[in-house]
């Protein structure tokens, strides 16, 4: 895509209070899939103080990588934008963002889309429902876009309506409603991968079996389609 037709970069925040491995693995697989869709992709990991970024090998991945330390406070939107600016060709950016680093300013930016991974464990479903409510409530006054839920490890044949009773049960006894099932991205899954285990990293480099790498492309495409991404309007990226 040349400079005269280039669109604004799209930023996808993978966050939530589920396990770190679930969040980080989801963000890595998403970035991998976006790159397979021939998008110039950047993965940014926001790390806790003193923690090394998970991707530190050479080369670390088939996509560009960067990291920011949360230190005393979360990186600002400006800091993320500055980081993205150092990778001038980036079209899609995936940010691995701990919920502890989540701030209102992140969701006030209409260029950011929030993705909440949801594993099959009942406690994780409850956490995802709580995260969705907290973020969606903050979105309302800002005029931003509500978050999406990405099921990880669930049967690929499940429909959106199949998640409705699951989400309803997750908020039983709570004072807030269940997330609407139309905010669940039906992205399929990688059947052999355990999202509760450590991410697919070997010596600081991402390592995926060919079958798993291919599956990430479908997951990334489903995410772009569900979020209304303008990147799919480009014939070079649509499939």
Report on the structure:
Helix 1 crosses helix 6. The chain is an alpha/beta fold and 239 residues long. The protein has a single domain, classed as 3-Layer(aba) Sandwich (Rossmann fold). The protein is built from six helices and eight strands; from the N terminus they run βαββαβαβαβαββα.
The whole-number mean of residue pLDDT values reads 82
Which word captures the global form? globular
Q: In percent terms, what proportion of residues is strand?
A: 15-25%
Helix count from the secondary structure assignment: 6
Number of E strands: 8
Low-confidence stretches: 1-6
Briefly say what this structure is:
This protein is α/β, with parallel strands linked by helices and 239 residues long. The protein has helices at residues 20-36, 77-85, 104-108, 122-142, 163-170, 210-226; strands spanning 10-14, 41-47, 64-69, 92-96, 112-118, 148-151, 201-202, 205-206. It has one domain (10-231): 3-Layer(aba) Sandwich (Rossmann fold).
How are the SSEs placed, and which strands pair?
Blueprint: E1 10-14, H1 20-36, E2 41-47, E3 64-69, H2 77-85, E4 92-96, H3 104-108, E5 112-118, H4 122-142, E6 148-151, H5 163-170, E7 201-202, E8 205-206, H6 210-226
Helix pairs in contact: 1-6
Which keywords apply here?
single chain, 239 residues, alpha/beta, Rossmann fold, 6-stranded parallel β-sheet, two-stranded antiparallel sheet, globular, disordered N terminus
């Amino acid at each position: 895509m040349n400079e005269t037709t280039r669109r604004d970069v799209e930023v996808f925040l993978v966050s939530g209070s589920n396990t770190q491995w679930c969040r980080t693995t989801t963000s890595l697989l998403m970035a991998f899939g976006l790159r397979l869709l021939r998008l110039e992709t950047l993965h940014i990991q926001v790390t806790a103080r003193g923690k090394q970024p998970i991707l530190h090998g050479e080369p670390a991945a088939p996509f560009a990588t960067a990291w920011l330390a949360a230190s005393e406070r979360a990186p600002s939107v400006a800091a993320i934008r500055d980081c993205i600016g150092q990778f001038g060709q980036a079209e899609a950016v995936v940010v691995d963002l701990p919920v502890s680093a989540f701030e209102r300013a992140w969701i006030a930016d209409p260029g950011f889309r929030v993705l909440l991974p949801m594993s099959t464990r009942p406690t994780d479903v409850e956490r995802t429902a709580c995260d969705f409510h907290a973020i969606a409530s903050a979105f309302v006054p800002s005029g931003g876009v509500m978050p999406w839920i990405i099921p990880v490890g669930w049967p690929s044949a499940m429909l959106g309506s199949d998640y409705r009773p699951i989400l309803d049960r997750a908020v039983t006894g709570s004072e807030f409603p269940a997330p609407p099932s139309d905010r669940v991205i039906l992205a399929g899954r990688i059947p052999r991968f355990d999202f509760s285990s450590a991410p697919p990293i070997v010596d600081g480099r991402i390592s995926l079996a060919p079958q798993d790498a291919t599956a990430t492309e479908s997951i990334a495409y489903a995410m772009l389609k569900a979020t209304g991404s303008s990147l799919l309007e480009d014939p070079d990226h649509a499939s």
